[in-house]
Amino acid sequence: xxxxxxxxxxxxxxxxxxxxxxxxxxxxxxxxxxxxxxxxxxxxxxxxxxxxxxxxxxxxxxxxxxxxxxxxxxxxxxxxxxxxxxxxxxxxxxxxxxxxxxxxxxxxxxxxxxxxxxxxxxxxxxxxxxxxxxxxxxxxxxxxxxxxxxxxxxxxxxxxxxxxxxxxxxxxxxxxxxxxxxxxxxxxxxxxxxxxxxxxxxxxxxxxxxxxxxxxxxxxxxxxxx
Length: 226
Prior knowledge:
Elements: H1 2-16, H2 22-32, H3 36-49, H4 51-75, H5 80-86, H6 89-92, H7 113-121, H8 123-136, H9 140-163, H10 169-187, H11 196-219
Helix pairs in contact: 2-9, 3-4, 4-7, 4-8, 4-11, 7-9, 7-10, 8-9, 9-10
Family: Belongs to the glucose-6-phosphatase family.
Pfam family, one: PAP2
Transmembrane segments: 25-49, 56-76, 116-133, 140-162, 168-186, 198-222
């Protein structure tokens, strides 16, 4: 893993050495893709477009947020900002990296929550826009434009997370793949016709389940908060 982490640090160095004008862009992207934006921006916009799509975005966002936390408990995952010092790499070679206000994230980093949750929650919105584009146009470019924008967005989010030293490249790739797979798998199981009681019970079950899982892992001698 050290070789993989070192390669990731060098990739972050190369990214930060790019044009200075891109710095504000990467920080803006990483802020835009914060998971909470799915609930405050993505869900309302999707709901305005179509009620079922909106509920799907909210549902998948909720499940992927929960699953991302659980995966991080088991996969752990170093954070570049901390690893570069703790590993002793800075004592072996010259490492030129910059710190930003969003660099010092704590907690395990694998997989990337920004990539996973954004990728999962936006999947139903993208497929809905693709279906709309297919009905309105015969152009293949127009039909594929929503998925093209989705792909470019996730790529930009992943690069922004590497740029600010929040994640290693392999954590970003894992997050993107997990998010797309989760969105594809859950889209057909959206409980759009369920009552409010179902969602309250589900949220409570996820909360209690995570607390129970947390207690079991701690009891097994695994320090989640390492």
